[in-house]
């Protein structure tokens, strides 16, 4: 239970640093200069996205035998780790999306930006790995918020100082280690 929470939190927080949604948080903060509605939009979107992703991972784990699932999950974690080395493109802020108000814009843009994102796939895999929907959802949502919340208040000055490349390399190593740990467990070594 605690392990699912901590691994989910750490994985998503680290994977989110320098990610397109963190850049999106920065762009929203610069555009609207109202961090609280953006915060609540990001939180609402994250809870929805990570709950669905953790549930999906758990559901998939009940359809596939444990050994096969561990092998697939291990290789998928390694693939996400390698994917972390590819920088994200900047998200677009269109006037049509911004007509939703500050909260609505943050909610919609974050929900769309997370579809097919590394952190969404990571949450699906964490849900499959740990079979603990509440802790994976809570951990991954907290990880998302810890990574994005400072950007809302510290803005461009903070984002420019982030050592993005070392963060991506650390994320790569974390996900490859999770993949190795999962594969070792599938082989009976862990």
UniProtKB/TrEMBL annotation:
**Predominant location of this chain?**
membrane
- Is Acyltransferase included in the keywords of this UniProt record? no
Please identify the protein, giving its name as recorded.
Answer: GDT1 family protein
GO CC annotations? membrane
Entries under PANTHER family matching the protein = TRANSMEMBRANE PROTEIN 165, TRANSMEMBRANE PROTEIN HTP-1 RELATED
Tell me the compartments it is located in: Membrane
Q: Which InterPro entries does the entry mention?
A: GDT1-like
Question: Which family does the similarity line name?
Answer: Belongs to the GDT1 family.
Q: Which molecular-function annotations from GO does this UniProt entry contain?
A: metal ion transmembrane transporter activity
In which organism is this protein found? Kushneria phosphatilytica
Key words, A-Z? Membrane, Transmembrane, Transmembrane helix
Bilayer disposition of the protein:
Multi-pass membrane protein
Its lineage reads: Bacteria, Pseudomonadati, Pseudomonadota, Gammaproteobacteria, Oceanospirillales
Q: Does the keyword Zinc-finger apply?
A: no
The transmembrane segments are 39-57, 69-85, 97-115, 136-155, 167-189
Pfam hit, one: GDT1
Superkingdom of the source?
Answer: Bacteria
């Amino acid at each position: 239970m605690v392990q699912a929470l901590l691994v989910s939190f750490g994985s998503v927080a680290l994977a989110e640093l320098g990610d397109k949604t963190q850049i999106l948080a920065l762009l929203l903060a610069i555009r609207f200069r109202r961090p609280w509605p953006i915060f609540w939009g990001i939180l609402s979107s994250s809870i929805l996205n990570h709950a669905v992703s953790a549930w999906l991972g758990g559901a998939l784990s009940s359809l596939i035998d444990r050994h096969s699932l561990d092998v697939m999950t291990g290789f998928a974690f390694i693939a996400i780790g390698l994917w972390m080395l590819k920088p994200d493109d900047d998200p677009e802020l269109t006037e049509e999306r911004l007509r939703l108000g500050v909260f609505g814009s943050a909610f919609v843009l974050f929900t769309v930006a997370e579809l097919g994102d590394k952190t969404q796939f990571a949450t699906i895999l964490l849900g499959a790995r740990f079979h603990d929907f509440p802790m994976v959802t809570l951990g991954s949502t907290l990880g998302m918020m810890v990574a994005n919340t400072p950007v809302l208040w510290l803005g461009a000055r903070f984002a420019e100082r982030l050592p993005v490349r070392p963060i991506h390399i650390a994320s790569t190593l974390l996900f490859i280690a999770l993949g190795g740990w999962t594969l070792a467990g599938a082989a009976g070594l862990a």
